């Protein structure tokens, strides 16, 4: 079942170590067949160098395994929540890429400070609220998905325009039209986070790109009337607390 999607998801997973986005067995990629209502995800704990397309696990939108000889990624409940909440995405990536995790650890958004960010993210990449003790004890990975969805709802963000989030003190999740697109967004986020770290070391001034430059670069890449709606996402302001630098 879904042999072509398994190969596509396998190849997307193999990009993670190639792009220096993961260490050891950390991270995972999934991809969905919307017509069948099934998604394919990396198995849990298998070293990337030992992975094969046949190891991929098939899961339904309730998070139940429908095919696979191995256990699905431990983050499967998070992917399940996101596929249900964002019905237009085709692939999801989770990594522990260090620069993005640095911002997640400091509970800071990855701000849109330059055109590199503006080409891919129509605004800042938000950091979620920390999960509560109760959430972690009730259903950790499912609640991780819920806190991601809540972040976008509470901050009026458009998940197509900003296809990424930092889970507080954990790490990034990105998504896209395909697994490969989600991997691309994960790598762009890591590069932007590294650039932002240095910019924020050089100055404490608020260096957000002006809206007209954000619009120019985002529209040039995605088109004014493209699927990624123009203007649907508002600029994310840093939370007004002492932890943020601007
Ligand atoms: O976030 C975590 C662990 O903190 C997980 O994403 C692991 O990094 C990968 O787990 P598996 O996909 O191998 O279950």
TrEMBL record:
Keywords in alphabetical order: Isomerase, Metal-binding, Zinc
InterPro entries: Aldolase_class_II_sugar_metab, Aldolase_II/adducin_N, Aldolase_II/adducin_N_sf
Pfam families: Aldolase_II
Cofactor dependency: Zn(2+)
Domain of life of the organism encoding this protein: Bacteria
Domain called Class II aldolase/adducin N-terminal: residue spans: 7-197
EC number: 5.1.3.4
Main EC class the enzyme belongs to: isomerase
Catalytic activity: L-ribulose 5-phosphate = D-xylulose 5-phosphate
Presence of keyword Isomerase: yes
Keyword field contains Isomerase: yes
GO molecular function: L-ribulose-phosphate 4-epimerase activity
Similarity remark: Belongs to the aldolase class II family. AraD/FucA subfamily.
Full protein name: L-ribulose-5-phosphate 4-epimerase
């Amino acid at each position: 079942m879904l042999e072509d999607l398994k190969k596509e998801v396998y190849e997307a997973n193999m990009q993670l170590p190639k792009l220096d986005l993961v260490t050891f067995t950390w991270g995972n990629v999934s991809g969905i067949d919307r017509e069948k209502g099934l998604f394919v995800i990396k198995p849990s704990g298998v070293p990337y160098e030992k992975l094969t397309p046949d190891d991929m696990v098939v899961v339904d939108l309730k998070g139940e395994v429908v095919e696979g000889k191995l256990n699905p990624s431990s983050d499967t409940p998070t992917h399940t929540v996101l596929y249900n909440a964002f019905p237009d995405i085709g692939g999801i990536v989770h990594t522990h890429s260090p620069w993005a995790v640095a911002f997640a650890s400091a509970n800071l958004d990855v701000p849109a400070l330059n055109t590199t960010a503006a080409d891919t993210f129509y605004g800042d990449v938000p950091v979620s609220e920390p999960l509560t003790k109760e959430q972690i004890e009730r259903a950790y990975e499912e609640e991780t998905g819920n806190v991601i969805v809540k972040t976008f709802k509470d901050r009026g963000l458009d998940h197509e325009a900003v296809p990424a989030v930092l889970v507080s003190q954990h790490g990034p999740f990105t998504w896209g039209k395909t697994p490969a697109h989600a991997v691309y967004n994960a790598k762009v986020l890591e590069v932007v986070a590294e650039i932002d770290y240095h910019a924020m070391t050089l100055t404490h001034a608020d260096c957000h790109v002006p809206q007209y430059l954000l619009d120019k670069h985002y529209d040039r890449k995605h088109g004014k009337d493209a699927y990624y709606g123009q203007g649907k996402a508002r600029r994310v302001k840093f939370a007004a607390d002492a932890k943020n630098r601007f």
